[in-house]
Amino acid sequence: MMQVLSSKSGANTKECPSPGKLIVLTGPSGVGKGTLLRSLLQRHPELYYSVSATTRSPRPGEVDGKDYYFISRSKFEQLVAAGKFLEWAEFAGNYYGTPSEPVIDQICSGKLVVLEIELEGARQIRRSFPSALSIFILPPSFNELEKRIRSRGQDSQEAIARRLQRAQEEINAANEFDIQIVNDDFETALNSIEAVLFG
Prior knowledge:
Blueprint lengths: L2 E4 L6 E4 L4 E6 L6 H11 L4 E2 L2 E3 L13 E3 L2 H9 L3 E7 L2 E6 H9 L3 E5 L2 H10 L4 E6 L3 H10 L5 H16 L6 E4 L3 H13 L1
Parallel strand pairs: 3-9, 3-10, 4-9, 5-6, 10-11
Antiparallel strand pairs: 1-2, 5-8, 7-8
Helix pairs in contact: 1-7, 5-6
Function: Essential for recycling GMP and indirectly, cGMP.
Catalytic activity: GMP + ATP = GDP + ADP
Keywords: ATP-binding, Cytoplasm, Kinase, Nucleotide-binding, Transferase
């Protein structure tokens, strides 16, 4: 069946003979989405991970083009104006966004494409790509999430307070998503995601 895929801006429109699927992974900061995704990609190299663009500085060990595309604010704003993102949002003072062209290309080639994005971006994807499958990763409890965020040791008290307030708002939105998975036991959570994707 021929399907026409396009981003909301219409900047990228393609006819796809046998489209793949867009998978959105979201959840509060510190819940372990990144770690789950890395393990998922190791086990399933056939998945396509869409690298996001950001204006934040690289963290130790992060590689440009692999973890994120690290770009300036002005460059990011130019891309937004040109309709080059599937979704974008400002989070903790930095922009994050998903370049649309590679995602649409990969879905058109029949791939399962995985995005790991924040709540606001995930909501934009639901509006622009209603056929996307959305998975929300929950912490076992709010106290456990607070412990994980504090143990990172890379944020000021003020930043931690902001992250926790935002995390509570995000957790309250979990029921907007197709599937909720609690990351209590890592292996169990990973198996649950696999069961959803490969059933």
